[in-house]
């Protein structure tokens, strides 16, 4: 176990890489719906799918650059849960059969990304490391979207 602890210093970098790659893949789904790029539709979408495609492109872009990551990730997690239960689950029970694996993975990756611990890159540290035991803020301003 000691040998694995030395890799813990790379955890924030690994989580950032996961966030960026997930966001880029998510943007790709939106561009397929809106523009037919790299493959897919012609852009003639019903209103609900137009909203979904815009959320995928713009929400994915915000996640990729790290702007408002927690609230956007929470919104996109809900979108993917909705997409799974509306579009995939009625087809079959098993995700491998109903082709809902990507929706499930996006949903849970975004849900984890929306948690305060994931945003800071740690799971065992307190959620507010800048507040001492007496409740006083130490030295730096607290950010709502960290």
Quickly list its features:
62% helix, single chain, 7 helices, 146 residues, disordered C terminus
Could you describe the 3D structure shown?
The structure is a single chain. By secondary structure, the protein is mostly helical. The chain has one domain. Helices cover 62% and strands 0% of the residues. The protein is built from seven helices and no strands. The chain has helices spanning 2-5, 11-35, 47-65, 69-88, 95-98, 101-113, 116-120. Helix 2 packs antiparallel against helix 3 (47-65) and helix 4 (69-88) packs antiparallel against helix 6. The radius of gyration is 18 Å and the shape is globular.
Q: What's the helix and strand layout?
A:
Elements: H1 2-5, H2 11-35, H3 47-65, H4 69-88, H5 95-98, H6 101-113, H7 116-120
Number of helices: 7
Distance between the termini: 30 Å
Order of helices and strands: HHHHHHH
Question: How many β-strand stretches?
Answer: 0
Shape estimate:
globular
- Total individual domains: 1
Average pLDDT across residues? Answer: 83
Helix-strand category:
mainly alpha
Proportion of residues in helical segments:
55-70%
Q: Quick one: biggest sheet?
A: none
The low-confidence runs, each spanning 5 or more residues with pLDDT under 50, are 122-126, 137-146
Summarize, please.
This protein is mostly helical and 146 residues long.
């Amino acid at each position: 176990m000691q040998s694995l602890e030395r890799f813990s210093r790379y955890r924030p970098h690994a989580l950032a890489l996961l966030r960026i790659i997930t966001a880029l893949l998510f943007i790709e789904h939106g561009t397929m719906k809106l523009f037919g790029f790299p493959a897919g539709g012609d852009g003639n979408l019903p209103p609900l799918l137009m909203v979904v495609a815009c959320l995928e492109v713009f929400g994915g872009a915000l996640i990729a650059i790290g702007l408002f990551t927690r609230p956007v990730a929470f919104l996109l997690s809900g979108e993917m849960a909705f997409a799974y239960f509306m579009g995939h689950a009625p087809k079959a029970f098993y995700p491998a059969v109903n082709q809902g694996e990507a929706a499930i993975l996006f949903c849970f990756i975004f849900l984890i990304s929306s948690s305060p611990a994931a945003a800071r890159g740690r799971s065992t540290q307190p959620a507010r490391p800048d507040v001492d035991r007496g409740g006083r803020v130490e030295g730096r301003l607290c950010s709502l979207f960290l």
